[in-house]
Amino acid sequence: MSLPLASPAARPAVGLDLGGTQVRAALVAPDGRLLARAATRTDVSGGPRAVVEQMRRLVDDVTAGQPRHGLAGIGVCAPGPLDSAEGMVLGIPTLPGWTDVPLTAWLQEALELPVRLENDGVGAALGEWRYGAGRGLSDFVYVTVSTGIGGGVVSDGRLLRGRRRLAAHIGHMTVVPDGPLCPCGNSGCWEAVASGSALGRRAREAAAAEPSGRLAELAHALAGGADAAVLVRAARDGDAAAGRLIDEEASALGLGIVNLLHLFSPQRVVLGGGVAQAFDLLQAGIAREIDKRAMPPFRDVPVVAASCGQDAGLVGAAALILAPPEPPTGAGSAHG
């Protein structure tokens, strides 16, 4: 049974962000400030029910001393595809067993609070629209570059939804026909070419090819192997091989962004996610790709770093309750 979404008034909400590596939670004030946060490693092997229990415990952690009736509700961002209107996870390629999971209903049962569910990229876009780099804009595109690539689109002052609210799976544009295999099963998706996972794969290949280089040295010193974060650090240290890979990443990101400019004609493109922590290294290469490929009327659209940074998903999840993009669904259906 669906719980009614009460007016948030001055009450905070909890934002939950489900990822393949971590589940994160935050208590968020109505103005978007994070009041408390907690995280735990995602219990992938335990399956959806175990992760819901993790979420319940995280909510308890961030609301310690806060009575449940003092909360406006719970917003959840998760990878897709999902049907946010029905509160249903349809399938997450990176999380085995997450097929046709009624996540909203399970969480409402566990927490006895209204719950709304949204795709993680769309949720982060909502956070940036309400509280960050997209605030006050009627048209903008948010791109998150992390393990995968996701995003959300605001067009004519409305969050773009599409059939079953499945719009804006921007990471699955095909940008390199017959390119690398994507977790979705297609080849050459933007995600397969330009995500943090793809960048990490190239970093490992480069470290193996040049074992005496700075990239391999850092990977060994940090004992975690070469990944995107190690690559960025090596590039900042002046490693030539790492610098070339950063330039390739910037070009790959720019290629996808050009497509987004032509499709949605935004006022601004906002780049977030883990890889965006290297935005200062990527910005010039992205701009070159836009100048090279975009039609002239689209070339002056600014590409900027997300203001909410790594917290965009948490803030956006809470914004589903505190500042929803549209009125809650009516009685008789799960809030999403």
Task: Give the structure's gist in a few sentences.
By secondary structure, this protein is of the alpha/beta class.
Mean pLDDT: 90
Q: Residue ranges: pLDDT <50 for 5 or more in a row?
A: 328-336
Number of strands: 12
Element string (H = helix, E = strand): EEEHEEEHEHEEEHHHHHEHEH
Helical content class: 25-40%
Q: Write the CATH fold name of the largest domain.
A: Nucleotidyltransferase, domain 5
Give the second-level CATH assignment, the architecture of the largest domain: 2-Layer Sandwich
Strand order of the largest sheet: 3-2-1-4-7
Give the CATH superfamily of the largest domain.
Answer: ATPase, nucleotide binding domain
Q: How much of the sequence is in beta strands?
A: 15-25%
User: Regarding CATH, which class of the largest domain?
Assistant: Alpha Beta
- State the end-to-end CA separation: 13 Å
